[in-house]
Design goal:
Length: about 400
């Protein structure tokens, strides 16, 4: 033996319903065959104490099919064709899971022991977790989605000390309810990327990238191209003219960006194309005036905040793509009519907050595509195991 949230869903004007039945598989439904377990040489710091410092749980090498009881000196499990391991709640807050080995006919064969999942995550689209016994000594690798067939090490990235909801999310997306043999992969492993579902209000390549960027924003009245690389920058961009055109790229973490596009005459044509690649960035974007207000925003990372304020009068369009976990998006489009917003979410199971206000006068449309556990896409629904807050106000 080697050793080294709750869902919240709210809407003020109308209700969007979430059905718990979308969870096809809970963690306790999974069945682990012999080669879905492995005695492992592991980096205790990376999996238990400070996984963020190592970019995940680091397994130096593994011995598939060798499974120790807890504590390890009680010996190994014996395996026969069709045997499998299942997890069940133990009732112990510190060590919440009991692992039990079953014969192929479903009768108990042996008790592996009680412990806790100290880390769960992904590598190459397959789900793994590390289970440590209540002796704080016996640790073993489990694969949710494949029968392991090599001694090679791996590093998987995800969640430290995952709660039940998080484990259910991994199980629903990557887990197998039938034991997997050596080299066998679950059919629901590595779900396809979501296909966006847009509202009827726009697309055809988002109306040919919003009519060729609003005719290059009236021939680039006030034009800015900004590239930011690095962290902890504070950037303020102020464009005041009859036409504003902004292209902004941010690569880095913990940047604060404040963008103000407006026209002193109260009219103006406003266009922003923004790409963010990093974590913990904060964007505050204002487009004000009675002319066209268009924003294409793509954010890839975790814990980013985007506040988008497009005001009066009419002709609002926003496309916001969020990839990662823990994002907060607040969107205000306001009057008078011509509201269109497409927000696409893709993540690894972390929480997010989404708040959309559109309001007067009519012309309100939005879609909220999100990846489902079977690889399909749903629209207008909060679907994250770690919890989310969804508020939509459309008015009129």
């Amino acid at each position: 033996m080697y050793k080294s949230t709750l869902f919240k869903l709210s809407s003020i004007v109308f209700c969007l319903l979430f059905a718990n039945s979308v969870w096809a598989t809970d963690f306790v439904d999974l069945k682990f065959g012999q080669y879905q377990t492995a005695d492992s040489q592991w980096n205790t710091s990376s999996c238990y104490y400070s996984p963020a410092s190592y970019n995940g749980c680091q397994i130096y090498s593994k011995n598939p099919g060798k499974t120790y009881k807890i504590p390890w000196f009680q010996g190994q499990l014996s395996w026969a064709t069709g045997d499998y391991i299942k997890f069940a709640p133990s009732g112990n807050a510190t060590y919440p899971w009991t692992a039990t080995q079953y014969n192929s006919n479903g009768t108990v064969k042996a008790v592996l022991g009680t412990g806790k999942v100290i880390y769960a995550g992904l590598v190459n689209g397959d789900g793994y977790f590390f289970f440590m016994g209540n002796d704080n000594n016996t640790g073993q690798l489990f694969s949710m989605s494949q029968g392991m067939n090599s001694s090679a090490g791996l590093t998987f990235t995800g969640d430290i000390n995952p709660d039940v909801a998080t484990l259910n999310s991994y199980a629903a997306t990557y887990g197998s309810t039938t034991p997997l043999a050596s080299g066998e992969t679950a059919s629901n492993s590595s779900p396809p990327a979501p296909t966006p579902v847009y509202s009827s209000g726009i697309t055809a390549a988002q109306s040919t990238k919003r009519t060729s960027k609003l005719s290059d924003t009236a021939s680039h009245g006030m034009e800015a191209h900004v590239n930011i690389t690095g962290g902890s920058n504070t950037v303020y961009i102020d464009q005041h003219d009859a036409a504003q055109y902004l292209e902004l790229t941010i690569i880095g973490n913990s940047n604060t960006v404040d963008i103000d596009q407006s026209d002193p005459t109260g009219v103006g044509t406003h266009f922003s194309d923004i790409v963010v690649d990093g974590n913990s960035n904060a964007l505050d974007i204002k487009q004000q005036g009675t002319g066209s207000k268009t924003a294409f925003i793509g954010i890839d990372g975790n814990s980013n905040i985007a506040n988008i304020n497009q005001k009066d009068s009419g002709s609002h369009y926003l496309q916001l793509d969020l990839i990662g976990d823990g994002h907060t998006a607040t969107i205000l489009q306001e009057g008078s009519g011509s509201h269109e917003a497409t927000v696409e979410l893709s993540n690894g199971g972390g929480s997010w907050d989404f708040d959309l206000h559109q309001q007067g006068s009519t012309s309100k449309e939005y879609s909220l595509p999100h990846n489902m556990s079977d690889g399909s896409t749903t629209s207008g629904t909060c679907y994250v195991s770690a919890g989310c807050s969804l508020t939509v106000i459309q008015s009129d």
